[in-house]
Amino acid sequence: MKKSQKGDNMMEELRNNETSEKKERIEPLEVITLEGDAIPAEGEATDSPCVRRGNLYKKDGLQWRTFHVNADETLLISMTTNDIVRIKTDSLINDIENGTVSACDVDPNPSFSLTEEEINVITERARVFENIIEKEMPEIENLFSVKKAKRNNDAEAILLGVSRRWLREMLKAYLRSGRNKFSLIDHRKGNYRKKVPHSKDYENPKNDVDEILKYGLKMFVKYGKPGMAYDAVLRRYFREPVEAPDGSSVKMVTLPEEERSVSYKMLYNYIRKHTEDYSCKGKDERDKQNNDRQLVGNSKTGVYELGQIVEADEMELGCYVVDQNDGETVLGKAVVYCMVEVLSGICIGAYVSLENNSMRGFQQVFLSLLEPHKNQTKGYNIDYDEEDWPSMIVPNEIRCDRGSEYMSKAYSKAMGELGIRNTPVPPGCGSLKGVVESFNGLVQTYLKAQLKNNGYVEDKYRGGDLAKGDACLTLEEIRGLVYQSVILYNRRVFEGLIDKKYLDNDVSPTPKGIFAYEKAHGRAGDPTNVNDATRPAYLFAMLAKEEEKRKFTWNRRKGIVYTFYKTELRFYSQEPWFLDILKDEPHPEDIEVRYNVDDIRNVYIRYKKEIHRVPLAEKIEQQYTYADLTWDEYDECIRKKRDSKVMKEAKQVYLDTKLNLQDTVEKQAEMAKALNPKKKKKYGKAHPEDKTAKKQEMRKDPDGITKRSYSSIDPEPKKETLTKQQEELAAIEHLRIPDEMRTMGDRKLSREEEINRILALIEDEV
């Protein structure tokens, strides 16, 4: 195939070759008019000019090519600059008729002699570019703008076997040709790209090394980091199963570096050759200031002992978690609280929750230091030694940022009780606590690569809403992944400079190795300072104190009582010291009660300089049905019970029943009064049908003499004789006297005068 001519539009065309095996002629391009998409016939007169895709126009002294035309709008690209404009089609036609825009002569499209392989290549390229144009169509005016963010087209570049820069140039040529696929022909001498050491054909690699490098490049497009791409290569090609000595299990072991056919440097150079470098330098004012400042030291400056300084921080993972019960409700992003020992760079504590900038999170990560981490990771199926994740260490100083949890009064009081020095770094200076920041970055990197499309927020093109839709992991599953990342972090290899004494003594250049060496030969020796004697004091200092919403009261009969919406939790102990408090202590309410926010089963008090634990009352069994809840969960449970529909319905039924009973009692009493006039009560023998009377008769002899004394039975009282006037008074005593009968003039009558007045009226009527 011969090169015949060059055009100003950067497209070279090939003439016919008599020896070519296949010929293809370019057909006329699509044409539309203002009325529709119909192409006018030759010689047919038209009232308005035709606007065709691929037409060349001159406007404002510049030449423009149309590459997208429909009845509504037309897109034009400059032939000399990277500008793209969008105008209405009818406006363009009016400008052509008015002479503002003039059509330029276009050379006729010649015929080409192409092989079938070449046609397939340019067809595939055209398909890729059409997909790019379709994605960019809403904002295609900014496609080549240097001020706007560019879409990542690495996948398309790798698919076509070109760099991102060359892909951009090919796209410009394709648009300036009016989206003519023959502009995508390689016009260099020999009509082919120079052979590179490794083929770009994923399906048919030349050899094993070529296959591995292609897979690594593919993983780089997925993960975005060469290190993660090489890890994927190692997982797929350079691991083999090894059986344990006892034959109980089989583990996957990575091959040594000398046995790998592809090294990290080979893959890194291959990736750089086919992609552009990425820059992560900050661009806002604070980042520019941090990037330009002088770094005269590091985080380990002035640190000489294990446990001397620990850096603490919290980090929000970019991964959404879902509810464990339904698997659909998105709860939010997981937050990791961590503590890293500065001298060795080993992580000594980690905790995962949903609370961000919370004192509770710091309390939990501190409490995890008071016991072996094997207890914390129990149930997550993580295989590691205690040297991989040391614990039982309380530092002398904590270096942290100025988060709300570290500036709170609770944090200051806890550090004051324990005698730990608090050293907050200035705002915006994360490098001053770079050890823990490196932990945050590495954990994010470990998890991001593996959680892609599983709820992890990747970039601005795949934002939070899409990540929420892909979320599938629960908080417990995220905790297991973070704990495994901690083990990986503590086993990482230091590539940078380390102390010469570690090299002289063949110390493993890992946090685990340095910690073990300093523990055995260091300046301060073993930093472990938590034991059975000191653990209660550390625990008590980090416990939550009484708050207004959670108040504990002392009851000398019930013990310690927590009341929430009329529901009581009782804490009681049979220990002598607790009974002494209830019996002999004059003011037990002055004894402070503390609690662990995640443990409802116990509360803690300090009495006579000793820390005591008070459990839930053992004999109240219904309390232990809530034992697996936290305090917040218990409060929420009681609150739901109060506000539940069943509770409201039961209260309504009870209230209606109570009011109906009150009405019934009142009506029954009024009816009884009306039927039984008020009289002087009579006392005598019980009614013959009464059971008591029957028992009395059964105890008597036939002759009327009882066998035993019945002095407890009252004798029959004598009948009281009443006068005639008293009988009349008793007959009308129950009557209600009208108000007008109770007064005579302005004077109020007494009760006796009222009755006499009524009797007089009765006698007059008779």
UniProtKB/TrEMBL annotation:
Compositional bias annotation for Basic residues: 676-685
Top-level taxon: Bacteria
Biased composition regions of type Basic and acidic residues, renumbered to the chain: 12-25, 686-706, 715-725
GO molecular function: nucleic acid binding
GO biological process, one term: DNA integration
Integrase catalytic domain mapped to chain residues: 301-519
Ranges for region Disordered: 1-25, 672-725
Entry-linked InterPro entries: Integrase_cat-core (IPR001584), RNaseH-like_sf (IPR012337), RNaseH_sf (IPR036397)
Protein name from the UniProt record: Integrase core domain protein
Native source species: Holdemanella biformis DSM 3989
